[in-house]
Amino acid sequence: MLAFMRYLGNPNKRFSSIHIAGTNGKGSTSHMITSVLMEAGHKVGLYTSPHLKDFTERVRINGIEMDSKYVVDFVQEHQTYFLEAKLSFFELTVGMAFSYFKKHQIEVAVVEVGLGGSLDATNIISPVLSIITNIGLDHTQFLGTKLSEIAREKAGIIKPKTPVVIGETQAETTNVFVEVADKFKAPIVWADQNPKSSLKTDLKGLYQQKNIQTAVTALEALQFKRINEDCIVKGLLNVTENTGLLGRWQVLNHEPKVVADITHNAEGFRYAVEQIGATNYQNFHFVLGFVKGKKLEDIFSMLPKDGIYYFCTPNINRAEQLSVLEDLAEKHKLHSKTFSTIIQAYESAVENAKKNDFIFVGGSTFVVAEIL
Predict the structure, then answer these.
(1) Of residues 136, 110, 118, the one with CA closest to residue 42
(2) 224 & 257 share domain
(3) Which of 206, 317, 325, 329 is most deeply packed, by most CB within 10 A?
(4) What is the mean pLDDT of residues 273-286?
(5) Considering its fold, how many domains does the chain have in total?
(6) In 3D, which of 168, 164, 146 has the Cα closest to residue 155?
(7) pLDDT of the residue at 127
(8) Where do the H-state alpha helices sit in the chain?
């Protein structure tokens, strides 16, 4: 990846950056920070993954998606190098994003880690701040089966003498972060020890309160002169408008209430189920599909027994088989049907739901993408 950066003229060194890793919340936190920086008058690049509808969503400057013509031109211009260097899709995308930011002379980039931390393609920046939102058991086939192992991988974004904000204090991971931060003489701040309960955001979902804490603690740690309380308040209240974020407790309809959320692991579903349980709707319908490698037993064990389930399969090679979902539904005594496509499952839920019912669509980014 360093050779690729040198080939492109080291675009990663042409702007300040904020690097964000974590199991859950890193996307929302990235968008919150971007929105506040925009309100403060900064020209902000935002790199996130995956996209929901269009590839260009991954790269934005002040909320505006990367020009599709730039994508075509970039690939055509550098195609020979890509083939010779045998770059991965993600490496190519990171290089494209950083070159785009360089071309448009951004001031600061908010860069979301794709997977893990230390070995991620984005880990060639020298950020002014590192952020790790939280640690959960996800992508265990790549990152490890223990929280401490996953934490060590994500701690790979901590840089020498560079502040790091940790979103959640967790017994299994605290020592790992302290050890790595001490090794690099990196000041460490724990966001959950710095509550921001009075601040609100336009992003729905109970879990966003944790992301607010992390984002605001990070913004304070940055000590950018242009950021003030007014910028923070406005930025948090206008995340969707400023940055175009989709798929986070996104309300698609009111009668029946339809909410789409990219929640895809046990930690995320814990918040989703809690929030759904706090509502006062007549019946609950769940349109769910998953990719392979998720801890589905943990997820299914917390799903409400009185819900109606519409299981489907995303149109990708990594989609979890319907037979696996059927077996789990039977084991946990869930009333369910299966559908070969997401659209069929969603349309069936809408048809069956009454005006006072609640429909939740989730389980994977790929499921949500197909109904937006």
Answers:
(1) 110
(2) no
(3) 325
(4) 93
(5) 2
(6) 164
(7) 98
(8) 2-7, 26-39, 68-85, 89-103, 140-143, 147-154, 174-183, 208-222, 229-237, 239-243, 266-277, 296-302, 322-331, 342-352, 365-371
- How far apart are the C-alpha atoms of 76 and 190, rounded to whole Å? 45
> Do 136 and 263 sit in the same domain of this protein?
no
Asked if 133 and 29 count as a contact pair (C-beta separation under 8 A), the reply is yes
302 shares a domain with 160: no
Q: Give the pTM.
A: 0.92
Residue 308: pLDDT over 90: yes
Residue 164: which domain range?
2-243
The chain-wide mean pLDDT, for the chain, equals: 95
The tens digit of pLDDT for each residue in 215-260 reads 999 999 998 999 999 999 999 999 999 999 999 999 999 999 999 9
The answer to whether residues 26 and 111 belong to one domain is: yes
Q: Helix/strand/coil (H, E, C) string of 45-76?
A: EEECCCCCCCHHHHEEECCEECCHHHHHHHHH
The verdict on 254 and 352 lying in the same domain is: yes
